[in-house]
Amino acid sequence: MSLRMxxxxxxxxxxxxxxxxxxxxxxxxxxxxxxxxxxxxxxCQSRVFFSVLGSDISRVEKILNDMxxxxxxxxxxxxxxxxxxxxxxxxxxxxxxxxxIYKKIEEVRNAEKNNQSNKK
Length: 120
Hints:
The structure is a single chain. By secondary structure, the chain is of the alpha+beta class. It contains four helices and three strands. Helix 1 packs across helix 3. The protein is elongated and about 70 Å long. It starts with a helix and ends with a helix. The mean pLDDT is about 90.
């Protein structure tokens, strides 16, 4: 990925976070985290990967997709691009997955500690 596209992705991510935090007042969103943005090289589409804590991810995906024209309109006011990409919100379970892996690692460590203390 070129440095320019990386900057575009970071700026889009930053502005979408601002829009969600400051301009959308929906209690069903919960804690939405924008993980990353991947924009096509022709700037036609941006895939916005998000994760949610404490809410149903499919419900949040529907809310975000229903509001994507509002988000895109506000994004256009905050960012200067020759072409403003269409937004596609994609759920990303990487945070939940990493928390589950961490819990399993902790369970294995605790089991090993118990086995070692029982052997002594």
